[in-house]
Amino acid sequence: NAQIFSPKVSVIIPVYNDYSRLKNCLSALRKQDYPSDLIEIIVVDNKSNYIPDWISEQEGIQFLREGNRKSSYAARNTGIRNSSGDILAFIDADCEPCPDWIQNGVLRFKDKGIEVLAGAIMFTSNGRDTFWEGIDSKMHLQQSINASLGSATTANLFVRRGVFDQQGLFPEWRSGADSFWVEQYTKGNPLEYEASAVVKHPKRGFSSLLKKRWRIGYGMAEKALWQKMQLKTCLKIFFKRLVGLNQNVLRYFPLISGKKEKCSLYLMVQISNFSFVFQSIIQRTRKKPK
Q1: Which one, of 83, 116, 120, lies nearest residue 98 by Cα?
Q2: How many domains does the chain have?
Q3: I want to staple 8 with a disulfide (CB 3.0 to 4.6 A). Which of 34, 85, 98, 286 is the partner?
Q4: pLDDT tens digit string along 9-23?
Q5: Do 9 and 39 contact (CB within 8 A), yes or no?
Q6: Do 31 and 166 reside in the same domain of the chain?
Q7: Which residues make Cβ contacts (< 8 Å) with residue 114, sequence separation at least 6?
Q8: What DSSP character marks residue 84?
Q9: For the chain, how big is the Rg over CA atoms in Å?
Q10: Neighbouring C-beta atoms of residue 33, cutoff 10 Å
């Protein structure tokens, strides 16, 4: 019974120009089975072009702004610094948690050996699925597959507070910092997965998928700069990816099958690849990310 073991939970949600879907996320959070007085909701705006008035009028929500760095991970870090929960639950503004999301995720932490837990991500679509929505659902946020490989995303992630004290906060990159942070953790610790802690995530169409893949390449370049990787090495990586899909790439996308899907996967990987090499050149004229 979750009421027997009921630690305080801080739900941290970064938002950038997506307040319409954030409203649905907040509505779903208010319908959680978990005791409402033990849920702290923290919304962190990350330099949105427009912030609606209604967000500041929401009761029971701590609204913050991260205006120094345009990165959802910088926003999450701001949320972490201002949180007070024993367990930190991460979700995206465009996601909707199922009513038992917090309860089913937190209950696993009754085992003191569990520190980081990935929850399930269910893709949803408005009406008929397009081809590119299908590609998106197979390429991204396959949390059960990620977890089996020692990785996870902050679209649905629970972390015991002490882990951040020990390991530090997320790198403040544009993309991929959550996976990197979890992978660093799992080098010496187990990552748990809970299929019953579910959030719903909308599938992306073609244009949104293009933006996602470009952002992934941007994050890859920031990671390379953070690792002090030489530009020559970045170029080698670029040309290696350009030649074809290596087994490591296919390992992360086991649901991709058929010639058309594999060609589409190649296209999307190359968009990230070109973004990676472009940003690798540009970023070396800038200061190293924190």
Answers
A1: 120
A2: 2
A3: 85
A4: 999 999 999 999 999
A5: yes
A6: yes
A7: 108, 160, 190, 192
A8: -
A9: 19
A10: 14
Helix, strand, coil shares of the chain as percentages rounded to 5?
45, 20, 35
Q: Alpha-carbon distance 158 to 56, whole Å?
A: 26
Which residues of the chain form beta strands (DSSP E)?
A: 9-15, 39-45, 61-65, 87-91, 96-97, 116-124, 156-160, 192-202
- Ramachandran angles phi, psi of 114, nearest 5°: -90, 125
Q: Which two structure tokens, joined as six digits, stand for 220?
A: 């890859």
Helix (H, G, I), strand (E, B) or coil at 247: helix
Last residue of a domain, one of 151, 167, 202: 202
Instruction: Locate 232 and state its tokens.
Output: 């020559």
Taking only the tens place, the pLDDT of each residue in 192-228 is 999 999 999 887 777 777 888 888 888 888 888 888 8
Same domain, 221 and 128: no
| Tokens 């997506």 belong to residue | 18
Q: Which domain holds residue 172?
A: 9-202
Q: Is residue 1 part of a domain?
A: no
What is the 8-class DSSP label of residue 287?
P
Judge whether 33 and 102 are in contact, CB under 8 Å.
yes
